[in-house]
């Protein structure tokens, strides 16, 4: 069962709690594929998607997830919010709380902002990405994709390559995959590799080719130029030459290695189109599909206490 009121990160979750959420998401994968419309277990509940940072995939995914469960979904965009007028984060939290939502999904550019808001509101809060900190539902959908495609997660050799320094996706994935006993390798230029990565239970590499040997899963990360101030890489061309995933480079991994990317992709920078669009190897569109199922599961699980449903705690 899941004893937590909020989902602010993968950190703090036990392996069996992560597995529980993945198992809960499985039912929604098949339901969505068969266009089932009969389950409106969140009918009468209001979900606020408060996005203080731009998003396409995550916002749309959470909106679809809430609506497929029958909830009333309200999207709040940063450009239209009072934050632009100087309102503090705590005042925003108090405002959201006063609206008596049944669940709030938050995306924010500051690490720790979601946890701060969660402590000020009286309903479940889901982290849709906060600064460089975490993006838990992305890690869950990635884990679900791997489990469905590879059969299991334990023992899988997963290579995460790219802008690790600025990536909350990388952090959440490392936490989830190591908790589920995968072997995780992280690859980045020295300027984009956080210090002390070994303490997270992963093996850091500077050489992408070496890291790819025997890989079961290759997860590419976007260069987050909007979070960079200064020359982290000489040029995108140089980055592609050393850290871009091409078909030739992918040949160093296992013949059936899975290719993943959280999106949006910079084609020709961290990944070539031939790899991203490979019918058999690429799971990128499947990740998007798993995202809806995972977010349906999280909304369902976290609102069970309010609905008086068994399966809490």
Q: From N to C, what is the helix and strand string?
A: HEHEHEHEHEHEEHEHHEHHH
Q: How would the global form be characterised?
A: globular
Q: What proportion strand?
A: 5-15%
Major beta sheet, strand line-up = 7-6-5-8-9
In helices, the fraction of residues equals 25-40%
Q: Could you characterize the architecture of this molecule?
A:
With 313 residues, this protein is of the alpha/beta class. Helix content is 38%, strand content 14%. It has helices at 15-33, 57-68, 89-98, 113-118, 136-150, 168-179, 208-212, 236-243, 247-250, 273-276, 284-302, 304-307; strands at 46-51, 72-77, 103-108, 125-130, 157-161, 183-187, 203-205, 217-220, 258-260. The strands form 2 sheets. The protein has a 5-stranded parallel sheet with strand order 7-6-5-8-9. The chain has a 4-stranded parallel sheet with strand order 2-1-3-4. Helix 1 crosses helix 5 and helix 5 packs across helix 6 (168-179). The longest helix has 19 residues, at 15-33.
Q: How is this fold's topology laid out?
A:
Blueprint: H1 15-33, E1 46-51, H2 57-68, E2 72-77, H3 89-98, E3 103-108, H4 113-118, E4 125-130, H5 136-150, E5 157-161, H6 168-179, E6 183-187, E7 203-205, H7 208-212, E8 217-220, H8 236-243, H9 247-250, E9 258-260, H10 273-276, H11 284-302, H12 304-307
Parallel strand pairs: 1-2, 1-3, 3-4, 5-6, 5-8, 6-7, 8-9
Helix pairs in contact: 1-5, 1-11, 2-11, 5-6, 5-11
Briefly characterize the structure:
With 313 residues, this protein is α/β, with parallel strands linked by helices.
């Amino acid at each position: 069962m899941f004893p937590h009121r909020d989902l602010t990160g993968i950190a703090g979750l036990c392996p069996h709690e992560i597995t529980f959420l993945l198992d809960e998401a499985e039912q929604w994968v098949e339901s969505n594929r068969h266009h089932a419309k009969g389950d409106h277990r969140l009918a009468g509940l209001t979900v606020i998607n408060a996005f203080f940072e731009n998003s396409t995939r995550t916002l749309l995914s959470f909106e679809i997830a809430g609506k497929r469960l029958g909830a009333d979904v309200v999207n709040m965009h940063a450009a239209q919010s009072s934050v632009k007028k100087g309102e503090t984060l705590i005042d925003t939290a108090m405002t959201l709380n006063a609206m008596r939502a049944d669940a709030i999904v938050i995306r924010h550019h500051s690490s720790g902002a979601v946890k701060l808001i969660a402590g000020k509101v009286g309903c479940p809060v889901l982290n849709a990405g906060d600064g460089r900190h975490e993006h838990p539902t992305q890690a869950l959908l990635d884990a679900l994709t791997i489990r469905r495609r590879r059969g299991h997660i334990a023992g899988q050799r997963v290579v995460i390559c790219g802008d690790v320094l600025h990536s909350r996706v990388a952090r959440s994935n490392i936490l989830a995959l190591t908790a589920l006993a995968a072997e995780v390798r992280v690859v980045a230029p020295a300027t984009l590799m956080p210090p002390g990565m070994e303490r997270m239970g992963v093996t850091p590499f500077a050489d992408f080719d070496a890291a790819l040997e025997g890989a079961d899963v290759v997860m590419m990360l976007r260069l987050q130029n909007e979070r960079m101030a200064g020359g982290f890489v000489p040029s995108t061309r140089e980055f592609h030459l050393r850290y871009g995933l091409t078909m030739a480079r992918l040949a160093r991994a296992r013949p059936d290695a899975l290719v993943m990317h959280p999106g949006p992709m910079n084609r020709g920078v961290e990944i070539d189109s031939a790899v991203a669009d490979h019918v058999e190897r690429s799971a990128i569109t499947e990740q998007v599909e798993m995202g809806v199922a995972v977010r349906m599961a999280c909304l369902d699980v976290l609102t069970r206490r309010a609905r008086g449903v068994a399966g809490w705690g």
